[in-house]
Design goal:
- By secondary structure, the protein is of the alpha+beta class.
- It has eight helices and 16 strands.
- The chain has two domains: about 80 residues, no CATH class; about 170 residues, Glucose Permease (Domain IIA).
- The strands form five sheets. Strands 5, 7, 8, 9, 10, 12 and 13 form a seven-stranded antiparallel beta sheet that branches. A three-stranded antiparallel beta sheet has the order 2-1-16. Strands 3-4 form a two-stranded antiparallel ribbon.
- The longest helix is centred in the first third of the chain and has 32 residues.
- The protein is globular and about 65 Å long.
């Protein structure tokens, strides 16, 4: 049987089909472009700045904070990384003096480096690494008469992970070999000390990991408030690893006691001293995209020189004779922290 085809219907069908096909192709390329854009983030960075470069850049930042043209230490370190190919082994203080001379009437490092194709990368990377460590503060301090006074200013608002008055030693062991469980690199800095030494938060953040891990023993993961840094404190004390009030979701201040040094770990069974020497394993992970947190392209930094810099600011702590727990003696208020942490001093 012959079927007569209506030419108009055929044409209309072709138009609909072509419109659908073109729309699908456009949508595909739009989604692909959007995904590509969303996944455009830093996937690797080596934090090579030495203690001297960090200290000099920080001093310039603090010195110029109240001036018309503030020179952030992030900008200074980014300039230096462009100048030396991120190799700070030959850094000299005159390198920063040279930068200041070049600034002249340009005023900002951004303007000075606007034609350098690497500057924006280093600025983002150093910004993620150091973004929460300098800032405005109001804090308690000894008044010289056995009491406390309030001081305010701008400067280092991050603390050493080891409380004041407790000895420790460390060396640059980042990348050393580890064999428990499987062969891997040591992605942190070990600070050797004594069981029970109070561990303090380097900066404020939210507890995102707590409990037993066969590699790190009793450990804590604390995420910075801007979400870019995740601090890992491991091998905490057997039996009583954490300070009072530390639990999943807790918000902590910089310098707050969060736990106690121990030697736990290297065991599938919890609360076991599997380490041979008491120490704190300190790790710092950068996160530019959430896929990096537990994914295959994690960025762990060598924090040895940062720990040396932070030794300039150690929290004074006192022990509660009833509970045996330590707490900080001098409180601090940091305006950039969330409202729940803006409650005033003890």
């Amino acid at each position: 049987m012959l079927i007569k085809l209506n030419k108009n219907k055929i044409l209309a069908g072709l138009i609909v089909f072509l419109a659908f096909a073109i729309g699908t192709v456009i949508a595909f390329f739009f989604v692909s472009a959007q995904q590509t854009q969303e996944k455009s983030y830093i996937k690797w960075f080596e934090f090579n700045a030495g203690e001297k470069a960090l200290a000099d850049a920080m001093a310039l930042d603090i010195e110029t904070y109240d001036m018309l043209y503030h020179i952030s230490w992030i900008d200074t370190l980014s300039y230096l990384a462009c100048k030396n190919g991120n190799d700070f082994s030959r850094y000299k203080s005159s390198d920063i003096s040279e930068m200041k001379e070049k600034l002249g009437d340009i005023y900002t490092v951004d303007d000075l480096m606007k034609d350098n194709k690497y500057y924006s990368f280093y600025k983002e990377a150093f910004g993620a690494t150091l973004g929460g460590l300098l800032g405005e503060y109001e804090k308690q301090a000894p008044d010289g008469r056995g009491g406390k006074k309030l001081v305010s200013g701008y400067g280092l608002i991050a603390y050493s992970p080891i409380a004041e008055g407790f000895s420790y030693s460390h060396y640059d062991d980042f990348g050393n070999s580890r064999s428990y469980g499987y062969r891997r690199q040591h992605l942190g800095n070990d600070l050797m000390g004594y069981v029970g030494t109070p561990i303090t938060a380097i900066e404020g953040g939210t507890v995102e990991a707590i409990g037993w891990n066969q590699y790190g023993g009793w450990r804590l993961g604390i995420r910075s408030f801007d979400g870019k840094r995740s601090y890992y404190y491991a091998h905490l004390r057997k039996g009583s690893p954490y300070a009072e009030g530390i639990e999943p979701g807790s918000q902590v201040k910089a310098g707050q006691v969060i736990g106690y040094m121990g030697m736990t770990g290297y065991s599938t069974k919890s609360d076991v001293n599997g380490m041979s020497v008491p120490h704190l394993h300190l790790g710092l992970q950068l996160i530019f995209d959430e896929s990096q947190k537990e994914g295959t392209n994690q960025i762990w930094l060598d924090v040895y020189n940062l720990v040396k810099l932070l030794s300039r600011n150690r929290a004074t702590v006192i022990k509660d004779s009833k509970t045996g727990h330590y707490r900080r003696k001098y409180d601090i208020v940091i305006p950039s922290y969330p409202d729940p942490l803006q409650k005033y001093f003890h």
